[in-house]
Amino acid sequence: MESNIRPSSDLRNHYAEVSRQCKEQRRPIHITVNGRGDTVLLSETDFQEMQSELELLRSLALSQADIENGRVQPLGSLFDDLRERLKVSAAV
Predict the structure, then answer these.
(1) d(Cα 56, Cα 53) in Å, to the nearest integer?
(2) What residues does each domain of the chain span?
(3) DSSP string, 47-89
(4) What's the CATH number for 1-42?
(5) CB-based contacts of 39, cutoff 8 Å, min separation 6
(6) pLDDT tens for each residue of 59-91
């Protein structure tokens, strides 16, 4: 992903332009302070997409760990177990 680099003074002096650029180009903008990287700006849309992708990746990693550690069972037996539990709880 290509990005833009802008000095922190642009946030103060040209915020509307920086915001528009971030939204239109859909690329992160790296903000520098005294020539060094300090902050990265994303549009709200891009941030939400990134958060959703991270959540999916975390879920996939947890699922992979479950498979590797044998914490899985066939779907049919899962439903059988659930039916039995429902019968027991309904009888109580």
Answers:
(1) 5
(2) 1-42, 45-92
(3) HHHHHHHHHHHHHHHHHHHHHHTT----HHHHHHHHHHHHHHH
(4) 3.40.1620.10
(5) 8, 30, 31
(6) 999 999 999 999 988 888 889 999 999 998 888
